[in-house]
Write a structure and sequence with these properties.
The protein is of the alpha+beta class. It has six helices and 13 strands. Helix 2 packs antiparallel against helix 3.
């Protein structure tokens, strides 16, 4: 019993020692929080069957990388059909344009005959009846040319519509290749190969490792001195001697009670303001694999730019955690 009591006291003392407020110079505030990264759901645009999954949980992906493909056989068959319609419309347009050239030649001939007949009538070598016939031929040739031009316009519209349908099918086929919108890490695989999902069905969830942050809560006096862009540090419980560079990117304009995660009653009795501290993107470019979402820790905010960071929060430390 004595050993059990001693062990319990030691564990309690260790816990409170670990979570006790660190000794900090005036002008530096801190709060408890968890590292978070925005979750991005990769979902289907159309209903269909999953043909391939190219990544798995834990894999790192790059922006624009294809992570899954849907079955597009039906769309590809429809595309082939529309492409045949495009070919047919193109040939119709060629025929209509050739007909225009022919009608232009007929109209030119009718105009020349009319001109000669007018001269012959003036000289008495042709009758008015012949002149009337030439006028009618000229009118018919002009009408035929106008009709040929109209057929060209109709063929152009048919070709444009067919090309539009073909482009739409190509876009839909491309949209069935699911891509990662941002650099990140696959958090969840929500469907398997062969499953049929509806439009908007989630296939994968990735964490945006380019935007990693920690939300903390500061009392009014400290939150009022915190500004966007203030220098900050994040220290994870898993790596207490490896401070992470960060910046304040958001300060809430509305007060709220502190969450249940806050340990001391004095803090719970105060109104607090949410402050978001974002990990430096340059640091993430080389340490993204270490930024696991959900890791608890502390975020420190420098309220006064003239205050020097204590040695425990200096960057580039090489000392190892005590064991």
């Amino acid at each position: 019993m004595a050993l059990v009591v001693v062990a319990g006291v030691a564990a309690t003392a260790g816990y409170w020692w670990q979570h006790a407020e660190p000794r900090l110079p005036v002008g530096i505030a801190f709060g408890n929080g968890r590292v978070e990264a925005d979750e991005i759901d990769i979902a289907t645009k159309f209903s269909g069957r999953i043909a391939a999954l190219l990544v798995d949980e834990g894999d790192t992906v790059r922006a624009g990388q294809v992570v899954a493909r849907m079955d597009t056989q039906d769309l590809e068959m429809s595309l082939h059909k529309v492409e045949a319609q495009v070919l047919g419309a193109s040939r119709m347009l060629d025929e209509a344009q050739a007909d225009v050239q022919q009608q232009k030649a007929q109209a030119k001939l009718a105009e020349q005959q009319l001109t000669r007949t007018i001269v012959l009538v003036d000289r008495g070598y042709a009758t008015a009846e012949v002149l009337d016939q030439r006028h009618q031929q000229m009118s018919a040739a002009s009408a035929a040319l106008a009709a040929a031009n109209a057929r060209v316009g109709q063929a152009e519209q048919m070709l444009a519509a067919a090309n539009h349908d073909a482009d739409l099918y190509r876009i839909n086929i491309a949209d069935n290749s699911l891509v990662a919108p941002r650099d990140g890490r696959v958090q969840y695989r929500l469907a398997n190969i062969g499953e049929v999902v509806g439009a908007g069905g989630k296939v994968l969830t990735i964490l945006d490792t380019g935007y990693v942050y920690m939300d903390i809560f500061l009392p009014t006096a400290e939150a009022g001195r915190t500004t966007v862009g203030s220098d900050a540090r994040i220290v994870l419980d898993a790596a207490p001697k490896a401070p992470i560079p960060a910046k304040v990117v958001f300060v809430s304009g509305e007060a709220q009670f502190t969450p249940k995660a806050v340990e001391t009653k004095a803090e719970r009795d105060k109104l607090m303001f949410r402050v978001r501290v974002r990990v430096d993107p340059d640091h993430l470019s080389t340490h993204a694999a270490e930024m696991s979402s959900g890791l608890p820790g502390l975020a420190y905010v420098r309220l006064n730019g003239d205050v020097e960071w204590p040695a425990s929060l200096a960057l580039g430390r090489t000392d190892e955690p005590s064991r």
